[in-house]
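Exercise 7. Given the encoded structure of a 213-residue chain, write a plausible sequence.
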Protein backbone atom coordinates (compact mmCIF):
# COMPACT_ATOMS: atom_id res chain seq x y z
CA UNK A 1 0.00 0.00 0.00
CA UNK A 2 1.13 3.56 -0.66
CA UNK A 3 2.49 5.10 2.51
CA UNK A 4 3.50 1.75 4.03
CA UNK A 5 7.16 2.74 4.09
CA UNK A 6 8.56 0.74 1.17
CA UNK A 7 11.34 3.21 0.41
CA UNK A 8 12.42 3.27 4.07
CA UNK A 9 12.57 -0.52 4.29
CA UNK A 10 14.39 -0.86 0.97
CA UNK A 11 16.99 1.68 2.09
CA UNK A 12 17.44 -0.17 5.38
CA UNK A 13 17.91 -3.50 3.60
CA UNK A 14 20.37 -2.05 1.09
CA UNK A 15 22.38 -0.44 3.90
CA UNK A 16 22.58 -3.79 5.68
CA UNK A 17 23.79 -5.53 2.53
CA UNK A 18 26.37 -2.83 1.86
CA UNK A 19 27.63 -2.95 5.46
CA UNK A 20 28.22 -6.69 5.08
CA UNK A 21 30.06 -6.35 1.78
CA UNK A 22 27.24 -7.48 -0.50
CA UNK A 23 26.47 -5.76 -3.81
CA UNK A 24 22.85 -4.83 -4.46
CA UNK A 25 20.69 -3.06 -7.02
CA UNK A 26 17.22 -1.56 -6.59
CA UNK A 27 14.66 -1.70 -9.40
CA UNK A 28 11.33 0.10 -9.61
CA UNK A 29 9.29 -2.51 -11.47
CA UNK A 30 5.75 -1.17 -11.65
CA UNK A 31 4.36 -1.73 -15.14
CA UNK A 32 3.97 1.50 -17.09
CA UNK A 33 6.10 3.52 -14.69
CA UNK A 34 9.61 2.06 -14.97
CA UNK A 35 12.59 4.21 -15.90
CA UNK A 36 12.52 2.81 -19.43
CA UNK A 37 8.81 3.44 -19.91
CA UNK A 38 9.04 6.96 -18.51
CA UNK A 39 11.88 7.63 -20.97
CA UNK A 40 9.69 6.34 -23.81
CA UNK A 41 6.87 8.70 -22.78
CA UNK A 42 9.29 11.66 -22.69
CA UNK A 43 10.48 10.82 -26.21
CA UNK A 44 6.89 10.54 -27.46
CA UNK A 45 5.96 13.86 -25.85
CA UNK A 46 8.92 15.48 -27.61
CA UNK A 47 8.10 13.90 -30.98
CA UNK A 48 4.39 14.66 -30.70
CA UNK A 49 5.05 18.21 -29.56
CA UNK A 50 3.50 17.64 -26.10
CA UNK A 51 0.26 16.28 -27.53
CA UNK A 52 0.27 13.48 -24.98
CA UNK A 53 -1.61 14.18 -21.74
CA UNK A 54 0.37 15.51 -18.77
CA UNK A 55 1.48 13.21 -15.99
CA UNK A 56 -0.98 12.11 -13.33
CA UNK A 57 -4.72 11.65 -13.41
CA UNK A 58 -6.56 14.08 -15.67
CA UNK A 59 -9.54 14.09 -18.02
CA UNK A 60 -7.41 14.15 -21.19
CA UNK A 61 -5.47 11.07 -20.11
CA UNK A 62 -8.67 9.24 -19.14
CA UNK A 63 -10.25 10.01 -22.51
CA UNK A 64 -7.24 8.83 -24.50
CA UNK A 65 -6.69 5.64 -22.52
CA UNK A 66 -10.41 4.74 -22.83
CA UNK A 67 -9.84 4.09 -26.52
CA UNK A 68 -9.60 0.25 -26.74
CA UNK A 69 -6.82 0.27 -29.35
CA UNK A 70 -4.72 2.76 -27.39
CA UNK A 71 -5.38 0.89 -24.15
CA UNK A 72 -4.27 -2.45 -25.63
CA UNK A 73 -1.19 -0.84 -27.18
CA UNK A 74 -0.27 0.83 -23.88
CA UNK A 75 -0.71 -2.43 -21.98
CA UNK A 76 1.43 -4.44 -24.38
CA UNK A 77 4.20 -1.81 -24.37
CA UNK A 78 4.17 -1.73 -20.56
CA UNK A 79 4.35 -5.53 -20.42
CA UNK A 80 7.17 -5.73 -22.98
CA UNK A 81 9.06 -3.10 -21.00
CA UNK A 82 8.80 -5.28 -17.89
CA UNK A 83 10.01 -8.31 -19.84
CA UNK A 84 13.12 -6.33 -20.82
CA UNK A 85 13.58 -5.14 -17.23
CA UNK A 86 13.31 -8.62 -15.72
CA UNK A 87 15.71 -9.97 -18.35
CA UNK A 88 18.23 -7.33 -17.24
CA UNK A 89 17.56 -8.21 -13.59
CA UNK A 90 18.44 -11.84 -14.35
CA UNK A 91 21.79 -10.66 -15.76
CA UNK A 92 22.50 -8.51 -12.69
CA UNK A 93 21.65 -11.42 -10.42
CA UNK A 94 23.95 -13.71 -12.42
CA UNK A 95 26.75 -11.17 -11.87
CA UNK A 96 26.38 -11.56 -8.12
CA UNK A 97 24.11 -8.68 -7.20
CA UNK A 98 21.35 -8.95 -4.64
CA UNK A 99 18.27 -7.59 -6.37
CA UNK A 100 15.69 -5.54 -4.46
CA UNK A 101 12.47 -4.85 -6.37
CA UNK A 102 10.23 -1.98 -5.35
CA UNK A 103 6.89 -3.55 -6.39
CA UNK A 104 6.63 -6.60 -8.62
CA UNK A 105 4.45 -8.36 -11.21
CA UNK A 106 1.52 -8.76 -8.80
CA UNK A 107 1.42 -4.97 -8.26
CA UNK A 108 1.23 -4.48 -12.02
CA UNK A 109 -1.57 -7.03 -12.26
CA UNK A 110 -3.44 -5.13 -9.57
CA UNK A 111 -2.92 -1.80 -11.37
CA UNK A 112 -4.17 -3.23 -14.66
CA UNK A 113 -7.25 -4.75 -13.00
CA UNK A 114 -8.18 -1.37 -11.53
CA UNK A 115 -7.34 0.80 -14.54
CA UNK A 116 -8.47 -1.56 -17.32
CA UNK A 117 -11.36 -3.58 -15.82
CA UNK A 118 -12.85 -4.52 -19.20
CA UNK A 119 -9.61 -5.86 -20.72
CA UNK A 120 -8.52 -9.47 -20.13
CA UNK A 121 -4.81 -8.67 -20.35
CA UNK A 122 -4.02 -11.98 -18.60
CA UNK A 123 -4.76 -13.68 -21.92
CA UNK A 124 -2.22 -11.61 -23.84
CA UNK A 125 0.74 -13.56 -25.19
CA UNK A 126 2.99 -10.80 -23.84
CA UNK A 127 1.58 -11.25 -20.31
CA UNK A 128 2.07 -15.01 -20.43
CA UNK A 129 5.65 -14.44 -21.56
CA UNK A 130 6.14 -11.99 -18.68
CA UNK A 131 4.89 -14.57 -16.17
CA UNK A 132 7.30 -17.09 -17.67
CA UNK A 133 10.38 -14.87 -17.75
CA UNK A 134 10.04 -13.07 -14.40
CA UNK A 135 12.63 -14.21 -11.85
CA UNK A 136 11.13 -15.96 -8.82
CA UNK A 137 11.96 -13.90 -5.74
CA UNK A 138 13.67 -15.63 -2.82
CA UNK A 139 11.70 -13.42 -0.44
CA UNK A 140 8.49 -11.44 -0.92
CA UNK A 141 6.99 -8.93 1.50
CA UNK A 142 3.59 -7.27 1.44
CA UNK A 143 3.64 -4.00 3.39
CA UNK A 144 0.14 -3.07 4.51
CA UNK A 145 -1.52 -0.03 6.06
CA UNK A 146 -5.19 0.92 6.08
CA UNK A 147 -6.56 3.09 3.25
CA UNK A 148 -7.14 5.93 5.73
CA UNK A 149 -3.55 5.80 6.98
CA UNK A 150 -2.33 5.62 3.38
CA UNK A 151 -4.18 8.87 2.63
CA UNK A 152 -2.81 10.51 5.78
CA UNK A 153 0.80 9.56 5.03
CA UNK A 154 0.39 10.64 1.41
CA UNK A 155 -0.63 14.11 2.59
CA UNK A 156 2.36 14.23 4.94
CA UNK A 157 4.72 13.33 2.08
CA UNK A 158 2.90 15.70 -0.32
CA UNK A 159 2.57 12.97 -2.95
CA UNK A 160 2.19 14.56 -6.44
CA UNK A 161 -0.37 12.04 -7.80
CA UNK A 162 -2.07 10.36 -4.82
CA UNK A 163 -4.92 7.88 -5.19
CA UNK A 164 -8.22 8.89 -3.63
CA UNK A 165 -9.75 6.95 -0.73
CA UNK A 166 -12.10 4.98 -2.99
CA UNK A 167 -9.23 3.74 -5.16
CA UNK A 168 -7.11 2.96 -2.10
CA UNK A 169 -9.93 0.85 -0.69
CA UNK A 170 -10.02 -1.11 -3.97
CA UNK A 171 -6.27 -1.59 -3.74
CA UNK A 172 -6.49 -2.70 -0.12
CA UNK A 173 -9.13 -5.32 -1.00
CA UNK A 174 -7.03 -6.62 -3.88
CA UNK A 175 -3.86 -6.73 -1.78
CA UNK A 176 -5.87 -8.71 0.78
CA UNK A 177 -6.96 -11.20 -1.89
CA UNK A 178 -4.97 -14.42 -1.27
CA UNK A 179 -5.49 -15.53 -4.87
CA UNK A 180 -3.30 -12.57 -5.96
CA UNK A 181 -1.00 -12.17 -2.95
CA UNK A 182 -0.71 -15.65 -1.50
CA UNK A 183 0.36 -15.83 2.17
CA UNK A 184 2.46 -18.82 1.12
CA UNK A 185 4.61 -16.50 -0.98
CA UNK A 186 4.25 -13.15 0.75
CA UNK A 187 5.14 -12.32 4.33
CA UNK A 188 2.48 -9.80 5.30
CA UNK A 189 3.69 -6.94 7.49
CA UNK A 190 1.53 -4.50 9.45
CA UNK A 191 3.29 -1.22 8.72
CA UNK A 192 1.07 0.93 10.88
CA UNK A 193 3.56 0.12 13.67
CA UNK A 194 7.04 1.57 14.12
CA UNK A 195 9.23 1.13 11.04
CA UNK A 196 11.92 -0.58 13.14
CA UNK A 197 9.59 -3.51 13.83
CA UNK A 198 8.93 -4.10 10.12
CA UNK A 199 12.64 -3.70 9.34
CA UNK A 200 13.61 -6.29 11.95
CA UNK A 201 11.05 -8.72 10.55
CA UNK A 202 12.43 -8.31 7.01
CA UNK A 203 16.08 -8.69 7.99
CA UNK A 204 15.33 -11.68 10.21
CA UNK A 205 13.33 -13.41 7.48
CA UNK A 206 15.97 -12.87 4.82
CA UNK A 207 19.17 -13.55 6.66
CA UNK A 208 18.12 -16.28 9.07
CA UNK A 209 16.91 -18.36 6.12
CA UNK A 210 19.93 -17.44 3.98
CA UNK A 211 22.32 -18.69 6.67
CA UNK A 212 20.49 -22.01 6.93
CA UNK A 213 20.74 -22.68 3.18
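Solution.
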Amino acid sequence: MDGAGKSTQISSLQDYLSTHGMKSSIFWSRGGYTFGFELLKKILRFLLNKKLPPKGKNSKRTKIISNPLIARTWLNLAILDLIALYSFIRIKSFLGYYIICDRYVEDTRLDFIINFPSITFQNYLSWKLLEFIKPKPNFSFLLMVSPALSVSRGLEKDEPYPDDLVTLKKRYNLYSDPSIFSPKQYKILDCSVKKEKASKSILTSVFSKSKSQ
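Remark. The beta strands are 24-28, 98-102, 140-144, 186-190. Students should compare their own answers with the one above.
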